[in-house]
Amino acid sequence: MYVITGITGKVGGAVARALLSNNLPVRGVMRDVSKAAQWQDLGCEVAFAEMKDASALADAFNGATGVFILPPSDFDPAPGFPAARLIIDAVVQAIRCASPEKVVCLSTIGAQAEKTNLLTQRTLLEQALNALDLPVTFLRPGWFMENCALDVVSARDNGVIHSYLHPLDKAVPMIATADVGTLAAMLLQQEWQGKRIVELEGPQRVTPNDIANTFASILGRPVVAEAVERDAWEAIFRSQGHKHPLPRMQMIDGFNEEWICFEKPQAERVMGETELEVVLRALLKTAG
Predict the structure, then answer these.
(1) d(CA 183, CA 49)
(2) pLDDT tens digits, residue range 147-160?
(3) Count of structural domains within the chain
(4) pLDDT in tens, 241-270
(5) pLDDT tens, 224-247?
(6) Other CB atoms within 10 Å distance of the CB of residue 172
(7) Of 40, 43, 49, which is closest to residue 6 (Cα–Cα)?
(8) Contact of 66 with 104, CB cutoff 8 Å
(9) Which residues are registered as beta bridge partners of 104?
(10) Distance CA 87, CA 103 (A)
(11) Which residue among 73, 77, 229, 254 is least packed, with the fewest CB closer than 10 Å?
């Protein structure tokens, strides 16, 4: 039995579908009862648990051949990441109690970074899971191509995308969530000992100008990228409802200054197959 947390999201759903396509047993962990039927119709078992409920998680992980850990993302964390720490503690307790055969954890590019930033939540998770006495793989993907969902309306309606990644011609390792899910499903089916890191990026690195040009190609009209100046970030993020914008700002700094980066040589990295155009077409199709 393969247990998938975050099954109702893009990555978790992709992991589950990949396993189900191979006729493997899947138990999806979710908190929303209304989303259970669609997964049960696909042949999944369903378990209900909040990610901070160690007891419910342990029940969900019981008897698992492999567990996929995808904690919810907190884009506006309070200082010290208290919400993330509660979830991490619950996940660790549940794994210790249930003793699954192995764990695949969705981490992130730059989890090894020493500077505090939004992705430090994944650093803390890696550190906690590293202390467990069972096989764990940390899957570290690059920047998700689906983050471009924030650019769809302005690209389509105004012919511009507003980029926090600087400079506009600097390439960033990006990956489609479908490729993350496919690889995670493969890793769950593998056997290994101890702890390992698997890094993942797409078929080519992407610049903000590439994103604008790809939108332009799809839409059939000009789209340009404009840089959002660093001095404006805090006011913008606060206007969007952020109470603690600094971690997000520091994360973007990390990509721009390249201290958020892959840890291993490229020769040891897994390369995804999904092109940026495929992702942007899907985002435009579903945009309101």
Answers:
(1) 25
(2) 999 999 999 999 99
(3) 1
(4) 999 999 999 999 999 999 999 998 887 899
(5) 999 999 999 999 999 999 999 999
(6) 20
(7) 49
(8) yes
(9) 68, 137
(10) 16
(11) 229
Residue type, 62: N
pTM as predicted: 0.95
Strands across the sheet containing 103-106: 45-48, 26-30, 2-5, 66-69, 103-106, 136-141, 195-201, 270-271
Residues in the chain: 288
Instruction: Provide the pairing of β-strand 143-144 with 136-141.
Output: unpaired
Place of tokens 């208290």: 82
Tell me which residue has tokens 């610049």.
Answer: 207
On whether the CB atoms of residues 58 and 52 are closer than 8 A, the answer is no
Strand partners, 105: 69, 138
b/e sequence 145-158, b meaning 16+ C-beta within 10 Å:
bbebbebbeebbee
- CATH for 272: 3.40.50.720
Q: Are 114 and 81 in contact (CB under 8 A)?
A: no
Residues 6+ apart with CB under 8 A from 235: none
Place of tokens 């884009």: 75
